[in-house]
Protein backbone atom coordinates (compact mmCIF):
# COMPACT_ATOMS: atom_id res chain seq x y z
CA UNK A 1 0.00 0.00 0.00
CA UNK A 2 1.58 3.26 -1.14
CA UNK A 3 1.17 6.40 0.96
CA UNK A 4 1.30 9.96 -0.36
CA UNK A 5 1.15 13.15 1.69
CA UNK A 6 -1.24 15.66 0.11
CA UNK A 7 -1.07 18.36 2.77
CA UNK A 8 1.00 18.94 5.91
CA UNK A 9 0.56 22.42 7.34
CA UNK A 10 -0.88 22.27 10.84
CA UNK A 11 -2.81 19.11 9.97
CA UNK A 12 -2.24 16.32 7.49
CA UNK A 13 -3.96 14.69 4.54
CA UNK A 14 -2.66 11.25 3.53
CA UNK A 15 -3.68 9.17 0.54
CA UNK A 16 -3.37 5.36 0.50
CA UNK A 17 -3.61 3.27 -2.64
CA UNK A 18 -1.91 1.52 -5.53
CA UNK A 19 -1.54 -1.62 -3.42
CA UNK A 20 0.63 -4.01 -5.51
CA UNK A 21 -0.47 -7.03 -3.48
CA UNK A 22 -4.23 -6.60 -3.95
CA UNK A 23 -6.10 -9.37 -5.83
CA UNK A 24 -6.10 -8.77 -9.59
CA UNK A 25 -9.88 -8.56 -9.94
CA UNK A 26 -10.32 -6.06 -7.11
CA UNK A 27 -10.51 -2.54 -8.53
CA UNK A 28 -7.95 -0.06 -7.27
CA UNK A 29 -9.24 2.47 -4.76
CA UNK A 30 -7.92 5.59 -3.08
CA UNK A 31 -8.32 5.83 0.67
CA UNK A 32 -7.67 9.04 2.62
CA UNK A 33 -6.91 9.99 6.20
CA UNK A 34 -7.03 13.44 7.78
CA UNK A 35 -5.08 13.89 11.01
CA UNK A 36 -5.59 16.90 13.30
CA UNK A 37 -4.22 17.03 16.86
CA UNK A 38 -4.92 13.60 18.39
CA UNK A 39 -7.88 12.81 16.15
CA UNK A 40 -8.15 11.37 12.66
CA UNK A 41 -10.81 10.39 10.16
CA UNK A 42 -10.61 7.72 7.47
CA UNK A 43 -12.48 8.63 4.30
CA UNK A 44 -13.93 5.64 2.42
CA UNK A 45 -11.55 3.23 4.22
CA UNK A 46 -11.87 0.51 1.60
CA UNK A 47 -13.09 -3.01 0.99
CA UNK A 48 -12.58 -6.05 3.17
CA UNK A 49 -9.76 -7.32 0.92
CA UNK A 50 -7.72 -4.18 1.67
CA UNK A 51 -8.20 -4.08 5.43
CA UNK A 52 -4.87 -5.63 6.43
CA UNK A 53 -2.62 -3.42 4.26
CA UNK A 54 -4.73 -0.35 5.11
CA UNK A 55 -4.44 -0.98 8.84
CA UNK A 56 -0.68 -1.49 8.56
CA UNK A 57 -0.29 1.71 6.53
CA UNK A 58 -2.46 3.80 8.84
CA UNK A 59 -0.69 2.66 12.02
CA UNK A 60 2.58 4.09 10.70
CA UNK A 61 1.05 7.54 11.25
CA UNK A 62 -1.41 7.28 14.16
CA UNK A 63 -2.13 4.95 17.06
CA UNK A 64 -5.31 2.89 16.96
CA UNK A 65 -7.03 5.07 19.58
CA UNK A 66 -6.39 8.16 17.45
CA UNK A 67 -8.66 6.80 14.71
CA UNK A 68 -11.74 8.54 16.08
CA UNK A 69 -13.91 8.90 12.98
CA UNK A 70 -14.77 7.05 9.77
CA UNK A 71 -16.62 8.40 6.76
CA UNK A 72 -18.48 6.47 4.08
CA UNK A 73 -19.62 8.53 1.12
CA UNK A 74 -22.21 5.88 0.23
CA UNK A 75 -22.87 2.14 0.58
CA UNK A 76 -20.66 0.48 -2.05
CA UNK A 77 -18.53 -2.48 -0.88
CA UNK A 78 -15.30 -1.12 -2.40
CA UNK A 79 -15.38 1.76 0.07
CA UNK A 80 -16.86 0.35 3.28
CA UNK A 81 -17.10 -3.48 3.29
CA UNK A 82 -14.09 -3.43 5.66
CA UNK A 83 -16.34 -1.86 8.30
CA UNK A 84 -16.82 -5.09 10.27
CA UNK A 85 -13.05 -5.46 10.67
CA UNK A 86 -12.53 -1.83 11.68
CA UNK A 87 -15.33 -2.39 14.16
CA UNK A 88 -13.23 -5.07 15.87
CA UNK A 89 -10.09 -2.94 16.29
CA UNK A 90 -11.37 0.58 16.97
CA UNK A 91 -12.20 1.11 20.65
CA UNK A 92 -14.10 4.39 20.30
CA UNK A 93 -14.99 5.60 16.82
CA UNK A 94 -17.95 7.10 15.01
CA UNK A 95 -19.01 6.45 11.41
CA UNK A 96 -20.40 9.41 9.45
CA UNK A 97 -22.52 8.12 6.59
CA UNK A 98 -25.65 9.20 4.68
CA UNK A 99 -28.71 8.37 6.78
CA UNK A 100 -30.18 6.54 3.79
CA UNK A 101 -27.61 3.76 3.95
CA UNK A 102 -27.57 2.84 7.64
CA UNK A 103 -29.60 -0.34 7.19
CA UNK A 104 -27.30 -1.37 4.33
CA UNK A 105 -23.83 -0.66 5.77
CA UNK A 106 -24.75 -2.41 9.01
CA UNK A 107 -24.73 -5.64 6.97
CA UNK A 108 -20.93 -5.30 6.90
CA UNK A 109 -20.86 -5.53 10.72
CA UNK A 110 -20.99 -2.71 13.25
CA UNK A 111 -21.30 -3.51 16.95
CA UNK A 112 -18.86 -1.05 18.53
CA UNK A 113 -18.60 1.85 16.09
CA UNK A 114 -21.31 4.47 16.59
CA UNK A 115 -23.35 5.33 13.50
CA UNK A 116 -23.86 9.05 12.85
CA UNK A 117 -26.40 9.72 10.08
CA UNK A 118 -25.68 12.65 7.75
CA UNK A 119 -28.93 14.32 6.73
CA UNK A 120 -29.55 15.23 3.12
CA UNK A 121 -28.50 18.89 3.36
CA UNK A 122 -25.09 18.04 4.88
CA UNK A 123 -23.33 19.20 8.02
CA UNK A 124 -19.89 19.94 9.44
CA UNK A 125 -17.50 18.07 11.72
CA UNK A 126 -14.86 19.53 14.03
CA UNK A 127 -11.80 17.30 13.91
CA UNK A 128 -9.06 18.47 16.25
CA UNK A 129 -8.46 22.09 15.29
CA UNK A 130 -10.14 22.06 11.86
CA UNK A 131 -13.69 22.02 10.53
CA UNK A 132 -14.68 19.66 7.73
CA UNK A 133 -17.80 20.01 5.61
CA UNK A 134 -19.93 17.15 4.30
CA UNK A 135 -21.04 18.34 0.87
CA UNK A 136 -24.22 16.85 -0.67
CA UNK A 137 -23.51 14.89 -3.84
CA UNK A 138 -26.72 12.92 -4.20
CA UNK A 139 -27.08 10.67 -7.26
CA UNK A 140 -23.36 11.06 -8.06
CA UNK A 141 -23.51 8.16 -8.30
CA UNK A 142 -25.47 6.98 -5.26
CA UNK A 143 -28.91 8.31 -4.33
CA UNK A 144 -27.54 9.16 -0.89
CA UNK A 145 -24.00 10.47 -1.29
CA UNK A 146 -21.61 13.03 0.24
CA UNK A 147 -18.19 14.49 -0.39
CA UNK A 148 -15.80 16.01 2.16
CA UNK A 149 -14.36 19.51 1.89
CA UNK A 150 -11.51 20.87 3.99
CA UNK A 151 -11.45 24.67 3.63
CA UNK A 152 -8.10 24.97 5.43
CA UNK A 153 -6.25 22.58 3.11
CA UNK A 154 -8.49 23.47 0.12
CA UNK A 155 -9.00 19.79 -0.63
CA UNK A 156 -12.25 18.23 -1.82
CA UNK A 157 -12.65 14.48 -1.48
CA UNK A 158 -14.99 13.89 -4.43
CA UNK A 159 -15.83 10.19 -4.18
CA UNK A 160 -16.65 8.76 -7.61
CA UNK A 161 -16.80 12.19 -9.27
CA UNK A 162 -13.57 12.56 -11.22
CA UNK A 163 -12.84 8.87 -10.90
CA UNK A 164 -11.49 6.51 -13.51
CA UNK A 165 -9.94 3.06 -13.47
CA UNK A 166 -6.21 3.25 -14.12
CA UNK A 167 -3.64 0.56 -14.92
CA UNK A 168 -1.06 -0.36 -12.25
CA UNK A 169 1.69 2.20 -11.84
CA UNK A 170 -0.34 5.19 -13.05
CA UNK A 171 0.72 8.59 -11.66
CA UNK A 172 -1.13 10.05 -8.70
CA UNK A 173 -1.87 13.39 -10.40
CA UNK A 174 -3.55 14.20 -13.70
CA UNK A 175 -0.77 15.47 -15.92
CA UNK A 176 -2.52 15.93 -19.29
CA UNK A 177 -6.21 16.74 -18.81
CA UNK A 178 -7.14 16.16 -22.45
CA UNK A 179 -5.60 12.70 -22.29
CA UNK A 180 -7.56 11.98 -19.09
CA UNK A 181 -10.92 12.60 -20.77
CA UNK A 182 -10.91 9.28 -22.63
CA UNK A 183 -10.30 7.48 -19.32
CA UNK A 184 -13.16 9.27 -17.54
CA UNK A 185 -15.94 9.70 -20.06
CA UNK A 186 -17.65 6.29 -20.14
CA UNK A 187 -17.25 5.92 -16.39
CA UNK A 188 -19.12 9.16 -15.74
CA UNK A 189 -21.76 8.59 -18.40
CA UNK A 190 -22.56 5.16 -16.98
CA UNK A 191 -22.30 5.79 -13.23
CA UNK A 192 -23.74 9.32 -12.99
CA UNK A 193 -27.48 8.97 -13.72
CA UNK A 194 -28.78 12.53 -13.42
CA UNK A 195 -27.83 15.68 -15.33
CA UNK A 196 -29.94 17.73 -12.91
CA UNK A 197 -28.09 16.35 -9.88
CA UNK A 198 -24.79 16.90 -11.66
CA UNK A 199 -25.58 20.58 -12.28
CA UNK A 200 -26.65 21.08 -8.65
CA UNK A 201 -23.34 19.61 -7.47
CA UNK A 202 -21.29 21.76 -9.87
CA UNK A 203 -23.10 24.91 -8.75
CA UNK A 204 -22.38 24.04 -5.12
CA UNK A 205 -18.75 23.07 -5.68
CA UNK A 206 -17.88 26.15 -7.76
CA UNK A 207 -18.41 28.21 -4.60
CA UNK A 208 -15.57 26.35 -2.86
CA UNK A 209 -11.88 27.27 -2.98
CA UNK A 210 -10.30 24.00 -4.17
CA UNK A 211 -6.63 23.33 -4.79
CA UNK A 212 -6.91 19.53 -4.96
CA UNK A 213 -9.88 17.40 -5.98
CA UNK A 214 -9.28 13.87 -4.73
CA UNK A 215 -11.53 11.12 -6.16
CA UNK A 216 -11.92 7.58 -4.90
CA UNK A 217 -10.44 5.95 -8.01
CA UNK A 218 -7.64 7.09 -10.29
CA UNK A 219 -5.70 10.33 -10.34
CA UNK A 220 -6.11 13.56 -8.40
CA UNK A 221 -6.81 16.95 -9.97
CA UNK A 222 -4.66 19.87 -8.85
CA UNK A 223 -4.67 23.59 -9.59
CA UNK A 224 -6.20 24.59 -12.91
CA UNK A 225 -7.16 20.97 -13.65
CA UNK A 226 -9.86 21.24 -10.97
CA UNK A 227 -11.66 23.94 -12.96
CA UNK A 228 -10.99 22.13 -16.22
CA UNK A 229 -12.72 19.08 -14.78
CA UNK A 230 -15.73 21.12 -13.63
CA UNK A 231 -16.05 22.73 -17.07
CA UNK A 232 -15.83 19.34 -18.79
CA UNK A 233 -18.24 17.61 -16.41
CA UNK A 234 -20.74 20.47 -16.68
CA UNK A 235 -21.04 19.88 -20.42
CA UNK A 236 -21.05 16.08 -20.30
CA UNK A 237 -24.38 14.35 -20.90
CA UNK A 238 -24.55 11.64 -18.24
CA UNK A 239 -26.73 8.61 -17.63
CA UNK A 240 -26.49 7.45 -21.24
CA UNK A 241 -23.69 4.87 -21.54
CA UNK A 242 -25.85 1.74 -21.57
CA UNK A 243 -24.79 -1.17 -23.75
CA UNK A 244 -27.34 -2.23 -26.37
UniProtKB/TrEMBL annotation:
Q: Which domain of life is it from?
A: Bacteria
| Pfam families for the chain | ODP (PF19583)
Which SMART domains does the annotation name?
Answer: Lactamase_B
Extract the InterPro entries matched here.
Metallo-B-lactamas, ODP_dom, RibonucZ/Hydroxyglut_hydro
Q: Which SUPFAM superfamilies match?
A: Metallo-hydrolase/oxidoreductase
Q: Where is the Metallo-beta-lactamase domain?
A: 28-217
Protein name listed in UniProt? Flavoprotein
Q: What is the lineage of its organism?
A: Bacteria, Pseudomonadati, Pseudomonadota, Gammaproteobacteria, Oceanospirillales
Amino acid sequence: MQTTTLYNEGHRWLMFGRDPSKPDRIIDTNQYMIISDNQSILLDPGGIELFAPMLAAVLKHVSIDQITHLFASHQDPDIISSLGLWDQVLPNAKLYCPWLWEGFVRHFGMNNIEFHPIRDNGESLTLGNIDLQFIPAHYLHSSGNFHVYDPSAKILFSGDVGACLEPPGAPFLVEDFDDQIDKMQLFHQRWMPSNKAKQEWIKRVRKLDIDIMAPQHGRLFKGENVQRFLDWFENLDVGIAVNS
